[in-house]
Specification:
Rossmann fold; binds cytidine-5'-monophosphate
Length: about 220
């Protein structure tokens, strides 16, 4: 497989990371979870008591605490310094605040720079909200992955249960809808389908079917 870049964008819990990880593993590509990077800044802001409105200080956190991804037998782990924050960045307090943090232009500037560096050698699957529009506009394959909010909330509910995170279904649905609204309506790099991205609606589809569909798109581009 030629070392292309695959950009996968879409709303919260649309299956981006699950599908992106499988594609990266099957193609022998690097997987970059850009949501984890915004979550990390949010986690650090809570830890160091930086206000979510303090753009300058939040952007400094992105410089002071470089994020590293490490592969393990249990999947990709997220570290800042020597601290494993893989689980911490998925907790409800981080999820509830991440859209406010990610709306700041200076925070995005720092993280986009880091994301582009990770992608320089190609052979990459990157998922997020602005990969096809802003981070990797030259990506060979761009997918915009969507699903109904009901189905996305179901998926997140099951995922949370598997991870031992207790959260009411209706609350999850509301939180997803709110995050989508904030991510789609911010001024800088809002969540939007790139003009040349292909829309894949995963409602009612299995992961295997979604992966198959994207692989067919990749093959047709090559
Ligand atoms: O993908 P995930 O749900 O983990 O992303 C968490 C949040 O990070 C999103 O709701 C969004 O606010 C922000 N994000 C972003 N741009 C990206 C990836 C994530 O603004 N490329």
């Amino acid at each position: 497989m030629e070392k292309i870049s695959i950009a996968i964008d879409g709303p919260a819990s649309s299956g981006k990371s699950t599908v992106a990880k499988i594609l990266a593993s099957d193609y022998g590509f690097i997987y970059v979870d850009t949501g984890a990077m915004y979550r990390t800044i949010t986690y650090l802001a809570i830890k160091h008591q930086v206000a979510f409105s303090n753009e300058e200080k939040l952007a400094e956190l992105a410089i002071d605490y470089p994020i590293t991804f490490k592969q393990s037998a249990h999947g990709q782990l997220v570290f800042v310094d020597d601290e494993d924050i893989t689980m911490a960045i998925r907790q409800p307090d981080v999820t509830a605040a991440v859209s406010e943090v990610s709306a700041h232009g200076k925070v995005r500037e720092k993280l986009v720079e880091a994301q582009r560096k990770l992608a320089t050698a190609g052979g990459i699957v990157m998922d997020g909200r602005d990969i096809g529009t802003t981070v990797l506009p030259q990506a060979e394959v761009k997918i915009f992955l969507i699903a109904s909010v009901e189905e996305r909330a179901q998926r997140r509910y099951k995922e949370n249960q598997a991870k031992g995170i207790e959260m009411d279904f209706e609350m999850i649905k509301e939180a997803i809808a709110k995050r989508d609204y904030l991510d789609s309506h911010r001024e800088v790099s809002p969540l939007i389908q790139a003009e040349d991205a292909l829309l894949v609606d995963t409602t009612g589809m299995s992961i295997v079917q979604v992966v198959g569909k994207i692989k067919a798109i990749v093959t047709s581009k090559g």
